[in-house]
Design goal:
The protein is mainly alpha-helical. The protein has four helices and two strands, in the order ααβαβα. The two termini are 25 Å apart.
Length: 133
Amino acid sequence: MFIDRLINQGNAPLISQAMRFTQARQELIQHNVANVSTPGFQQRDLSVTDFQAMLQSRLAEKQSAAPGTVSFDDAIPEMDDLTGQLLFHDGNNRSMEQLMADSAKNSMMHNFFVELLRKQFGSIKDALRERVS
């Protein structure tokens, strides 16, 4: 019970949800890459700005609510069709360069969240072992 509260009252739930978002987005980007030559395929994406806005509103709720009452588990934005791009003669809106750039940015963001979570759990582990960093 104590450890559960220790973990869930910090930023771990927020960081965990951000990691789930980047994982879902990476899977969607890979799906787009796999279908890059499929005629009529329309690429889809998860909006990073919508996700960040959701997290900001949940964080504001969490700061004014009782501990443990606000969760981040359902903060995943809707999938967007990427409609503003060039449409090819086969009806596909492919852009391999954009997909690769999105994949690289998303991977770096995921690695950043992994490192944040690792540092946070390392601090908790040190506190439980009564060590000072």
